[in-house]
Amino acid sequence: MTDEATTDEPVVTLLDLAWRSIADLIAEFDESAWKTPTALPGWSVQDCVAHIIGTELSLMGEPAPDVPLDHLSHVSSDFQRFIEVWVEARRHLPGTEIAAEYHEVIARRLAMLRSMTPEAFEKPGWSPIGEVPYREFMQVRVFDSWMHEQDMRRALDRPGHLTGPVVDASIDRFRAAIGYLVGKKAAAPDGSSVVLRTTGENEVVLPVVVQGRARLTETAPSSPTVTITLPFTTLIALGGGRWDLTQAMAAGGVEMTGDADLGQVVLSNLAFTP
Question: Do the Cβ atoms of 265 and 256 come closer than 8 Å?
């Protein structure tokens, strides 16, 4: 990771910060840490880092490795296969080699991003969230990288990186999705309102009002249908589909005021990542 930027793109700065935080985390790993299973089906801590490596190699135009995936029961969709080949190709490697490759690939990727013009960041193209400007795609990469850092930290019980600009940018993805999650997935009734409040290192308030359609509002209504208070880390685990309602409740710290039935339905439908 280089120290001098040649572009003023804020998203590149965010990616650099996200990847530096991962670099600091993996510097502490022994081989047992690398091989620790995460909440992602079939993935270890090492696999999370291999995924980031593979994604950035793909975005730099390198061909995907040709490896068999038929033996992997957790791989069932074309998108999963697209992701998994990069991970599977590295499963036999020791963590030290993954760390070395991570540093090398991220340095090259940042150099490429910093050489891009503003026009290149504005150009629409494919992304996991549809055809969007490249700049927005890279915002998704910030979110994805941070979420996988949290996967690793959760698996190893090493909490951290829960505040700061990368986290703020990642929470914006939650804000963008919350209306759909409450209104469509949870089917909150018209006229209802839901307020999610997080506790812990990062206090976030997500008020949603359903009036024809569900939308995030700037301020919470005075008498919401249900207020859900939960740890910030639990919100992240639920939003990423890493935990279900049972796991969230078992972890503790979840409280509901008002319509608890609606609150449970909302918590059961917070997952929005592919």
Answer: no
First to last CA, the chain: 28
Domain that holds residue 224: 167-267
pLDDT tens, the chain, 274 aa long? 444 445 689 999 999 999 999 999 999 999 999 999 999 999 999 999 999 999 999 999 999 999 999 999 999 999 999 999 999 999 999 999 999 999 999 999 999 999 999 999 999 999 999 999 999 999 999 999 999 999 999 999 999 999 999 999 999 999 999 999 999 999 999 999 999 999 999 999 999 999 999 999 999 999 999 999 999 999 999 999 999 999 999 999 999 999 999 999 999 999 998 7
Can you give the CATH number for the domain in which 103 is found? 1.20.120.450
- The answer to whether 17 and 165 have CB atoms below 8 angstroms apart is yes
